[in-house]
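Supplementary notes for students who missed Thursday's class. We covered one full example, reproduced here. Read the sequence, then the structure, then the short commentary at the end.
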Amino acid sequence: MLTLLLAGAASTRWPVVYLSLEEARSVLEQFRERLPAELRPFGPDAAASWEAWVRARDAEIRARVTAGEEESLVNLVLFGTSFTNQRRVTPADLLAGNPAGATDEAAREAGRQFGLLLRARMDDFLRALAQPGGNERLAIARRLLQAKGFDATDAETHDAIRQYLLALFVRISQQQAHYAELLATARAFEDPTQQFIERSQLFRDRGLSVDTSLVPNFAIQESLKELRERGMLTRHSVRRVAILGPGLDFADKQTAYDFYPLQSLQPVAVVDSLRRLELAAAGGVAVVTLDINPQVNAHLARAQQAARRGQSYTLQLPRDPQVRWNPEFTAYWRSFGDQVGVPATPARVPPALAGLQIRAVRVLPKFVARIEPVDLNIVVQRLVLDAPREGFDLIVATNILVYYDAFEQGLALANLTRMLRPGGLLLSNNAVPEVPGLGIRSVGYRTTVYSDRPDDGDHIVWYQKSASDSGR
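Structure (token representation):
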């Protein structure tokens, strides 16, 4: 094990270390025909090669955060309502904005109108950036632009910022077309399992998104319910939980609502479900979040500190009634938060989103105070816990492992396994390779459907660490 502690790890009571060569050996053996060039062949200096590779790969993965933030920035410009009175961009607008679709005069006119709308929204966005006030999203956008060398307060730079935003829009549009092709290829497999495996690596070359949403938390609750029914989780048995990639509700590509403050849903949602299902330990649940995005970690650290001063944490829960959620999902939305908080006054819905339903929950400080954010890259890093049996009872990873290929998923699984207690469970909506020797295996799954829209659901796979594996 590399004993060097990592920068930024001082905020946690556990050391954060790189995965050692010996700890990764079973994964390296499993993927020996597909290893990165730097890792083959291994000779007498294998340990040094491994250490150099994990450090370099850590930096490369962290660099993908910016690309993910740029995607959120584009979503904010296209769909946000907090900085403009212009209408939101629609799917039809996006189709019109594709030059390949301009096959006749009507299509060209639609494309021209989209260009005018986009320019008007960008102009409003740039004016708002100059004085973001208390708008956290605009403040983050401004910092991102500053990191790219743009001064949003200088009107002379606005043309350059517009060109940057347009280039991002084109790049992301091309990426989405590419991912649509990859998804179509995955669907072509006759074997549903192979389809799922291929889809579970879909974003391996994509920027690491910051965004999150409510929907996968319903699927997690449904899996927890079934695990309880099967006796794989018992009453009051969950004391420690890790959330891999908790994310921020910034401006996701599905809804991009920005009329309420930034929020992180999953750390609260999991505790809410554990209490509802009577799985939470009598003494409460400690939650550790693992993320490499500085915005996410800083947000959760501020929330924790505020909670320790007695301040609550309000979550906004919008629902588009035009999306016909299943009755079970609707019931989940209506009850969300009743185990960890009380009803709160929801944010005002802007005119551009008239008809949107919303409710709010004020999460009690005692639950938020037990959420501890840690800067950790799950592919190459892990926490060093006090003892194997002090590991996590449950680790939740939704829409995270999809950003890595099978080899890196295997390394992540090695790290996750070492952080689980013997018999502990990992719940993921992505399939990850089961590597002999790691001491963890798939023990089932549950499919949860959210609405009547095609492919609107999640497969949550359950991985369990061997109950006798106390040495990892």
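Commentary. The longest strand covers residues 440-449. The longest helix spans residues 46-79. If anything here is unclear, bring it to office hours.
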